[in-house]
Specification:
472 residues, alpha+beta, nine-stranded antiparallel beta sheet, disordered N terminus, disordered C terminus, FAD-bd_PCMH, oxidoreductase activity, acting on the CH-OH group of donors, oxygen as acceptor
Amino acid sequence: MAGGEDAAGLVDKHDTSIDLATWHLGIKTRPARVVIPKDLSEVIAAVRDEETYPSPLIAVGAMHSVTRCVEANQGTVLYMTGFNRIIGLAGAFDSDVQVVRAEAGVTMAALHAWLLARQRELSFSPEIGDATVGGLVTTMCKDSSVNGPGHLCALVEALTYVDHEGNVVRLSREKDEDALEHYMCSYSTQGITLDATLRCRPAALIRTRFHSLMVGNSRKLAERMLKLRAACDNVWAVITLDGCYLEQRWAAPGRTLHRTSPRLFLAIMRRIRYELILVAAVPKMVLWGTWGWLPDLYHHRSLLVNTYPAVTAQQARLDFSYYEYSDISRFAEVVEGALRFARDFKRDTGFAPSGFGCYFVKREGARAKLLAGAYSGSEGWSFVMDPLCPDPIDPRWLAYCRAFTPWAIARGARTSLTQTKELLPGQYALDSRYVRPRFLTPYYAQFVTEVKPGAEAAIRSPDRICYTAAAQ
């Protein structure tokens, strides 16, 4: 973003004709201001100066969201790309639990690489490695993790943000657990995230085995998937109307540390998986069962995660819609019903999603006890089944999402404001206690519920403010 500097010293562009687009070019917005803050003082200045930097003011990172959550028309967009430092590790090196502090603009791929170089890792490693720390700690995320929670929020020990008045607020799980959990359910409508402190652990290998399954009877396919899951630590799969690609994952014992698979082979497999997710059409070799010749891979989880370079409108562009089911006993019912729904939709319209991304997610941590966010309810296991499409602006795909969402909700699905396509008011509730008008876009506003009396005082407790802008 080229541009001059205003009196506050912010690098910005004031151009009402500029269009910003998400990674896959599916969602566009036309803000009045696009700002790339260089440091904390510039974030604070932008938040406090509503005349120069009009509302709604939102922060963005890699812009991998798939909904209209990035729209800030005639408002202000803060690109947090400059906040890309990994501040460091804390805790004893020989401990099973350490923490790493990273700024909001750090991608998960970069954080995992940095940790792996120090023989550390996060238990959570999403399939989209370009996702940023700041984006994931205040929204829904999922991973078929091994020996750890399948959402990043359970790993957050502390975070720092700028509130609507320009105060810098530091929340920790030790002192402010409720406020921290509610902030992470706010979709960044409560503040601009600066950094997060995450639990990490010694790096460990996992073993991955590849399978191809024919769909045939949908319920039998689901039952077969559950049997494969019971025989390992976790699975991840892509299901289409014709076949299923599935990965079994085990925690590898310590004695296998010298048996890591060659990085070249991992790169090849990562590319195959990239095409499988991106295009999401099961190749013929999957249907023919040729995955069977592949040896088990021994690798660090993050080394088999995709990153997504810039694309053009002529390319296949990954799009998906998020549905998380907290009752894992309904897995076979949902798989069977979702495939039937897709077949019926294709019969009526000629369109069906190219596949479904399937995750098994361990709910863990205090967030699991909240009634806000997708990971509410008791601790346990959820499954996520995301329909996929290689064209985010195909009107038939958008129509499919509008039709499928009520079907999924009726079967217990929870949705996401940043990852569930074509959501309507009433299909998600964003608690007004945890939003601020400064950061509230028209898209988010339609989901806000009524304010509960007395809630504001609990959130704005002075002991949660580190320092104010005036104190700098």
